[in-house]
Give the backbone structure.
Amino acid sequence: MRRAVLWALLALASAGTLQAADQPEVYAARVTRVFDGDTLWVKPLDGGRYQKLRLDGVDAPEICQAGGTASRDVLARRVLNQVVAVSVRHRDDYGRGLARIRHQDDDIAAWMVAQGHAWSYRWRRSLGPFQAEEARARQGRKGLFAQASAELPRDFRRRHGPCQRPD
């Protein structure tokens, strides 16, 4: 397992994505907590502080929204306590790193969308980076897309506000 993570990090390095002034921060880490379908905590393997990360390019249902706990549970089954390759490109308004996470040769964000447990993140008129994965999940009626009434998290938040979280 660690060998696969090391290969993923080497691939990122050879693609020129190791951290420089304007490059992503790249490291290996163990997932210690899954908060919801697009937010998790990791502990870098080389030490340092725990990091709260948001999967870059996806929007998973709010935890209090239909499909929210299922999305969290699917992500947890896939990565909790696993070693992953992390590439943080930016910090969001909440201080979370927006990250691409790789595990066993899969981009976890793309995998979540393909399984029907998250939407490709929409921005303005763009259907986002995982629009093909979302289209296939919709066609196959996977996960969230088994219900015609699946509501985008941003629309849910607009109507209901944020979920009240116990944290």
Remarks:
- The CA atoms of residues 64 and 164 lie 8 Å apart.
